[in-house]
Amino acid sequence: MTTILKNRLFWPALILAVMLGVNAFTSNQFIAIQDGHLFGTLIDILRGSAPLILVALGMTLVIATGGIDLSVGSVMAISGAVACLLISDLDNQNSLGGVLIAIGAAILVSLAAGLWNGTLVAVVGIQPIIATLILMVAGRGLAQLFTEGQIINVQSGPYSTLASGFFLALPVALLIAAAAVALTVLLTRRTALGLLLESVGGSPTASRLAGISARRITVMVYVVAGAFAGLAGLIASADIKSADSISAGNLIELDAILAVVIGGTALIGGRFSIAGTVLGAIIIQTLKVTVVAVDIPAEANLLFKSVVVVALCLSQSPDFRAKVFGRFTSRPAAEKVGIPA
Amino acid sequence: MTTMDMTPVTKDGGGPELNKRRRVYKPNTKYIPILATLFLLVVMYSTGVANYRNFDDPSVIVNLFRDNAVLLVVAVGMTFVILTGGIDLSVGAVISLTTILTATLLKADWPPLVVLPAVLLLGALIGAGQGAVIHFFKVEPFIATLAGLFLARGAALTINDESVPIRDDMWREISDFRIVLADGVVTKPIAIIAILSVLAAAAVLAWTRFGRNVYAIGGNADSALLMGLPVGRTRIAVYTLSGFCAALGGVLFSINSTSGWALQGNGMELDAIAACVIGGVLLTGGSGFVWGTLLGVLVTGLIRTIINFQGDLNAAWSRIIIGVLLFAFIVMQRLVTRKAK
């Protein structure tokens, strides 16, 4: 019992369970089968959290190396804009080949965006928060430039399948996110890659001296984060069947960082938990749905979010626990410089 | 990096030769970013004068202060936070909360002389709360102020999610008040308040014990603590100051537009951070000047002015150009600091 209570993910999981419980009571259809696929509030929550899971997944890897990626929202906007632009130029918007090319092009652009961030951080040696701030500011401008400031609408069956389609009774968006999570877990936990990431996050210099190509690893995580953000941008734009370069992925970087922190990954790097991040992303989405479900005005969502953030961060802060629960130890409280990673 | 770090080094480092070299070299590295920004500002202004009719009108410069008064005040507060090595993401949301609260209270017939100090105090309190969480519970500034962002924006949206007009006489009078500087050149009180806040901040940073503590903490918080400087008090004070400046910015916003809106100042925190970076304030803390921030605000403002004068340019370009400038300045700072080592 105590081992369960001491698990870092215990409190986040409990909060999620309580919120899901509230939803199960208030919604008239929590989970059901309709038209041959699963249906209901639970499925809506999971489907809606797919973009955030993807973005947060990339963010986890970046944060594991001691970095941060503020540009994910802008990359989402760029990717959606590129895809919708190419699809709207198609003669037949329903042609699978054309849509696949558009998706491929959008992912390529996202990879390039990630490469840019990675190069700035690892090769030029700029602090990650500033390096990615550049693309965060300029990227949305680029997306607006692509779409000429307009919202591009597309009427493409294959494209909207990304967000609203079902495969094997499950939403396609959720399957994409699940596949990305599975692939990342496989690559980081079944190979030495995860260890290398954590080692670079712990100390880039020590890793380099130990023979790890810290630079290559760092560039790689930003490229992966870019690709996942691009994928998330595609799902988000397929969901609304248009590219809105101003509001697409707006402030999602903050939600993603939040999801990572809720999941117990420290912003200083050197350690990460993919399961925690997925849990964090689902909590954020569930909170959004729950606030509406229990008839609290949607505007208050942010208030609740701030309460949850404060509660979770404080519960994870060792200093808070020590101060509040009165367990004063003789450990000297070394003053850590409060630089955001 | 700062005089704080340098003094002991030169004392212990011995020889007068080393001393002399350092003395010759130090001002250069310290002032290069700010001089580069000044140079850029002059180049941009001369390009504007050369290319557009009426650009040499003094009102172009005067209006720059009027249009960017809010950003200037907010960026001044942000400068203090960044100098200690922190970051404050909540300023945009505090602006929103201030404008909507001011408008709502005035609509409820509260006396304006009560509303004004009340909203300023609220901003300072939000800042102090964030500072306390950051200092006492070692929550990272990025996350703590993110929670503050959610809290303030959520509170603002809960109060009212629509624009509320201000019909109070005092607000209207200040809003309509014009200060004649010369023939045909007029400005508003909000520009004067913004300039006064820059002057006050520069004086505090240069000539007070608090100002030197801010630089010391940004240079190295551990050393500052060992030197016996009040690290906790100073750190909480800078966030309080930033919250106060944001609230003051919100009041200026409400005066300028004679209305309050919960989405007012959305994303202002990024503009403020960008202005600081362009002005040569290092995001790692310990180095930079309020004058640089002033120049940074003027540069971003001048970009918008030029785009307005050009007329046929998409507004998206201003984001892209600011992104490119950010990139140029960050790389330059990187080169300068590397050389200094």
Automatic annotation (TrEMBL), chain A:
GO terms for cellular component: plasma membrane. It holds the Pfam family BPD_transp_2. InterPro entries: ABC_transp_permease. Coiled coil: none annotated. It comes from the Bacteria. It is found in: Cell membrane. It is a multi-pass membrane protein. The chain crosses the membrane at residues 48-65, 96-116, 128-146, 166-187, 217-236, 256-284. GO terms for molecular function: transmembrane transporter activity. Keywords: Cell membrane, Membrane, Sugar transport, Transmembrane, Transmembrane helix, Transport. PANTHER family: ABC TRANSPORTER PERMEASE PROTEIN YPHD-RELATED-RELATED, GALACTOFURANOSE TRANSPORTER PERMEASE PROTEIN YTFT. This is Simple sugar transport system permease protein. It comes from Actinoplanes xinjiangensis.
UniProtKB/TrEMBL annotation, chain B:
This is Monosaccharide ABC transporter membrane protein (CUT2 family). It comes from Actinoplanes xinjiangensis. InterPro entries: ABC_transp_permease. It comes from the Bacteria. It is a multi-pass membrane protein. Keywords: Cell membrane, Membrane, Transmembrane, Transmembrane helix. It is found in: Cell membrane. Residues 1-21 are annotated as: Disordered. Its main location: membrane. CDD domains: TM_PBP1_transp_AraH_like. The chain crosses the membrane at residues 31-50, 70-101, 113-136, 180-207, 236-255, 276-303, 315-336. PANTHER family: ABC TRANSPORTER PERMEASE PROTEIN YPHD-RELATED-RELATED (PTHR32196), INNER MEMBRANE ABC TRANSPORTER PERMEASE PROTEIN YJFF (PTHR32196:SF63). GO terms for cellular component: plasma membrane. The keyword DNA repair does not apply. One of its GO terms (molecular function) is transmembrane transporter activity.
